[in-house]
Design goal:
Length: 282
């Protein structure tokens, strides 16, 4: 079952953000990125925030699963509906990116786009995301390594490799783009066994540029041992999670093997929905 983030917005005397983190934070602590985002939304309209946000998420933070992006998108959507600002999907994405930059520095924007639009997207930085239609739904495994990571640190690490070996880095990026095109075709045509092999190759490329670590490499190896067609790190890498593809109909069996090895496993169906907004009576 897909993991979700929920944000409930209601009127208040000022700005209140309720999460498991804020409930245990000491008084006077720095505001969370989502608080800064909401403050900016009101500041742009020359208003004082008078809103309470109650945030719950089934996604572990720092796991490479887009937890912060889903929170930013949900917060923007909830506040917009509460205040009647009627932001369209593109405005939601642009606004949510303000919060993502506070968390990750220079994010690509793919997590925000997927959280807002949903479905399966073909994404390039600076271009409009292209939605792809799968011939039939697919079920994927997401395996959490149990190790948190910082996207800012990973982006810095990969940038160092780019600066030290610019031509090698450029060549690896070209090969990754080529493999992504092949993987897209395999996914659209339902050739999951071939897609798995391409994911494993892509993981090796990402490991070469410094985005992986020993724990993730061992986890990919374990996914293959447990019967997956292939696997790769998610997000910026460096900890976080691994995305794996198993034979259809055996996802729960393979996931059980991984759980018995001590890992947390999610089964997620794609395509999945993007942001949904609704109003409830008080």
């Amino acid at each position: 079952m897909s993991q979700k983030t929920r944000v409930e917005a209601s009127g208040a005397q000022g700005l209140e953000v309720l999460t498991p983190i804020t409930r245990s934070r000491p008084a006077g602590a720095d505001p969370l990125p989502v608080e800064k985002l909401v403050q900016e939304m009101y500041r742009e309209r020359s208003l004082e925030p008078r809103v309470r946000l109650a945030i719950t998420s089934e996604l572990p933070s720092g796991a490479g699963l887009g937890s912060s992006a889903s929170t930013m998108v949900a917060a923007v959507a909830a506040v917009s509906r509460l205040e009647g600002w009627n932001l369209d999907i593109h405005s939601m994405i642009e606004t949510a990116m303000l919060g993502e930059r506070l968390v990750h520095g220079r994010p690509s924007g793919i997590d925000v786009a997927v959280s807002a639009i949903g479905g399966v997207l073909q994404f390039r930085v600076g271009e409009e995301p292209k939605r792809l239609d799968l011939p039939k739904p697919a079920r994927l495994l997401v395996v959490y390594s149990g190790e948190r990571r910082s996207s800012k640190k990973l982006i810095s690490k990969v940038s160092s490799m780019k600066n030290d070996f610019p031509h090698l880095f450029a060549s690896l990026c070209d090969s990754a783009s080529f493999v992504t095109g092949l993987a897209t075709q395999c996914f659209l045509e339902g050739r999951l066994d071939e897609l798995g092999k391409l994911l494993t190759y892509n993981h090796a490329v990402l490991a070469t540029v410094g985005a992986s670590n020993g724990r993730l490499d061992r986890l990919v190896d374990l996914c293959l041992e447990c019967g997956c067609y292939g696997a790769k790190l998610t997000g910026a890498g460096g900890g976080g999670s691994v995305l794996a593809i198993s034979p259809q109909g055996k996802e729960e069996e393979v996931g059980g093997r991984l759980e018995r090895r001590g890992f947390r496993v999610f089964l997620t169906d794609v395509p999945s929905e993007g942001v949904k907004v609704w109003t409830t009576e008080a």
